């Protein structure tokens, strides 16, 4: 075999959150997601917590917001080992302008559109209720 077998892309994103219901409401509102019924117990730790599942019907991306009974607390920090951020791609640069207007409309603080001509990308940076950095990203050219 030469090279890794193919994938179909990112299937799901599963952050641990401090308040699963507040985060579910936030992600649902910001990304226009559908909440799936029930709770998903943690594989291998069925008694230690659960996830609420949210589906983006346009792309098929699943977001599993995890509650752990043994959550240690503390704020998210991308400078520790683990997740730095996750980015959603958009098709056109003008889609970022539409996202900036949407985030303003629903009261989500954000960076505004950042254009990095030398690096050939544009992005918007914002954070979820736990401070997890999220981006909307467009590759220019």
UniProtKB/TrEMBL annotation:
InterPro entries: Glyas_Fos-R_dOase_dom, VOC_core. Pfam families: Glyoxalase. Coiled coil: none annotated. PROSITE patterns: VOC. Signal peptide: none annotated. Residues 9-139 form the VOC domain. This is VOC family protein. It comes from Pseudonocardia abyssalis.
């Amino acid at each position: 075999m030469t090279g890794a077998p193919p994938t179909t892309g990112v299937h799901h994103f599963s952050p641990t959150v401090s308040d699963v219901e507040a985060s579910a409401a936030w992600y649902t509102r910001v990304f226009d997601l559908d909440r799936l019924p029930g709770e998903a117990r943690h594989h291998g730790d069925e008694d230690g917590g659960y996830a609420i599942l949210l589906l983006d019907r346009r792309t098929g991306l699943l977001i599993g917001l995890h509650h752990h009974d043994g959550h240690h607390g503390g704020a998210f920090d991308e400078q520790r080992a683990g997740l730095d951020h996750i980015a959603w791609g958009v098709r056109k640069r003008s889609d970022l302008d539409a996202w900036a207007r949407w985030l303003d409309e629903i009261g989500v603080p954000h960076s505004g559109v950042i254009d990095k001509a030398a690096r050939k990308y544009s992005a918007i940076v914002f954070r979820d209720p736990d401070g997890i950095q999220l981006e909307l990203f467009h590759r220019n050219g």
